[in-house]
């Protein structure tokens, strides 16, 4: 039973919000949070969802600051 709880328990529990989280097939399908981007979001970062290209741009901008 513990194995079942591990696999299907709260996925957000213990996740570090400062690190990107890959969206799973259990997450609802969403579009990228960038303006004028119609791509499917694949990651969540700081409460916003991004496609792979815009997640990389967001992380690069933050790193440069």
Indicate the low-confidence ranges by residue numbers: none
What is the arithmetic mean of pLDDT? 81
Strand order of the largest sheet: 1-2-3
Class from secondary-structure proportions? alpha+beta
Counting DSSP H or I runs of 4 or more residues, the number of helices is: 2
Let me know the number of strands: 3
What does the secondary structure layout of this molecule look like, with pairings?
Layout: H1 2-8, E1 21-22, E2 43-45, E3 48-50, H2 52-64
Antiparallel strand pairs: 1-2, 2-3
Keywords:
3 strands; flat; alpha+beta; 65 residues; 12% strand
What does this structure look like?
With 65 residues, this protein is an alpha+beta fold. It has a domain at 21-65. Helix content is 31%, strand content 12%. It has helices at 2-8, 52-64, and strands spanning 21-22, 43-45, 48-50. The protein has a 3-stranded antiparallel β-sheet with strand order 1-2-3. Strand 2 and strand 3 (48-50) form a beta hairpin. The radius of gyration is 14 Å and the shape is flat. The model has no long low-confidence stretch (mean pLDDT 81).
């Amino acid at each position: 039973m513990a194995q079942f709880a591990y696999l299907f328990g709260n996925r957000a529990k213990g996740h570090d919000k400062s690190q990107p989280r890959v969206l799973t097939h259990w997450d609802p399908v969403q579009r990228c949070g960038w303006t004028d981007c119609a791509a499917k979001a694949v990651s969540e970062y700081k409460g916003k969802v991004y496609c792979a290209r815009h997640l990389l741009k967001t992380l690069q901008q933050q790193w440069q600051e």
